[in-house]
Amino acid sequence: MGTDIGDLLQKHTIEIAELSNKVVAIDAYNTLYQFLSIIRQRDGTPLKDSSGQVTSHLSGILYRFTNLIESGVKPVFVFDGKPPEFKSGTLEKRHEIREAASAKWEDAKAQGFEEEAYKYAQASSKVTKEIIEDSIKLLELMGIPYVKAPSEGEAQASYMVRKGDADLIGSQDYDSLLFGAPSVVRNLTITGKRKLPRKNLYVDVKPEMISLEESLEELGVTRSQLIDIAMCIGTDYNPGLENIGPKRALKFVKEHGSIEGVLFEIGKEIEDLDSKKDFFMNPPVTDDYELKWEKPDRAGIIDFLCKQHDFSEDRVNKVLDRLEANMGGGQSTLDQWF
DNA sequence: CTGAGAAA
DNA sequence: TTTCTCAGG
């Protein structure tokens, strides 16, 4: 998933308070995948309602985004549209890895290998059409805006930030930087601690910001060259060159000026190189969206989460008290932005 | 992951 | 109060 340029980038930990009143374009696919893979029981089973429907993503959205909104963050979810043709290889590979993980999960579970079982359970996570539909339904009920991208969500989100409609992108991946996002924030949560799997270790996890301009300056390359570096290592659109990691990719691209220079030097080719590079520079995007943070529909949320998906009404009401106090109407902290 | 409640 | 464990759906 994504590229491995993270090692080359300048990262700054920030306080969540610094994001107050900032519009954060959320990479929906990335976030939902994270929820599905992490919000699980100890045996690896995701949260499910009584009819067997997975609900991990609903729990994640409800709690995390209520917290972020309470901290003054203004989230807008950006969903993927139709992937580019040349992503099919990656998508197929992900499908195969998921299938294999699913089988290994069953095996490990049957043999009582708990740690392995959990690992493979996570790797078998899939962001299905139903998961996306459920998530959109909950976002609408919570009053959180969302955008459907014509193609890649990260491209659309980057466009929205460049246009000034959003301030930064929330994602664990670095791909948005290739699409020209001025800044990306990772680890977008308010709870500062994360437990390392199967260990008694707790690590402080703070939001981490990456500025495109600063990183480019530090590396001494242009955005076009950063795309070239990423393509040397491998992106969602190409497998990457053999025996070339971030360090050597940077060195080679700087030495030869571009990926074309590197390829000539080592006598290799990348299929559809020009159109892939152009896709990063000029991806399909849309202006067809409206960003409004509205009062949550309490009755609708109770019906959807509690009546349909077996959430505890007590818990949901408590979260909604906090959400209502910070969304739409009245003394909302969000209104002052307009 | 997150909130709630137990343990320290 | 703070830290840790566990269930949530």
Automatic annotation (TrEMBL):
Residue stretches making up the XPG N-terminal domain: 1-101
Annotated region (N-domain), positions in chain: 1-98
Enzyme class: hydrolase
Binding locations of Mg(2+) 1: 27, 80, 152, 154
Domain XPG-I span(s) in chain numbering: 140-221
Listed SMART domains: HhH2, XPGI, XPGN
Name of one Pfam family that matches: XPG_I
GO BP: any one term: DNA replication, removal of RNA primer
Positions bound to Mg(2+) 2: 173, 175, 236
Entry EC no(s): 3.1.-.-
Annotated family: Belongs to the XPG/RAD2 endonuclease family. FEN1 subfamily.
Biological role: Structure-specific nuclease with 5'-flap endonuclease and 5'-3' exonuclease activities involved in DNA replication and repair. During DNA replication, cleaves the 5'-overhanging flap structure that is generated by displacement synthesis when DNA polymerase encounters the 5'-end of a downstream Okazaki fragment. Binds the unpaired 3'-DNA end and kinks the DNA to facilitate 5' cleavage specificity. Cleaves one nucleotide into the double-stranded DNA from the junction in flap DNA, leaving a nick for ligation. Also involved in the base excision repair (BER) pathway.
Cross-referenced NCBIfam families: fen_arch
Record protein name field: Flap endonuclease 1
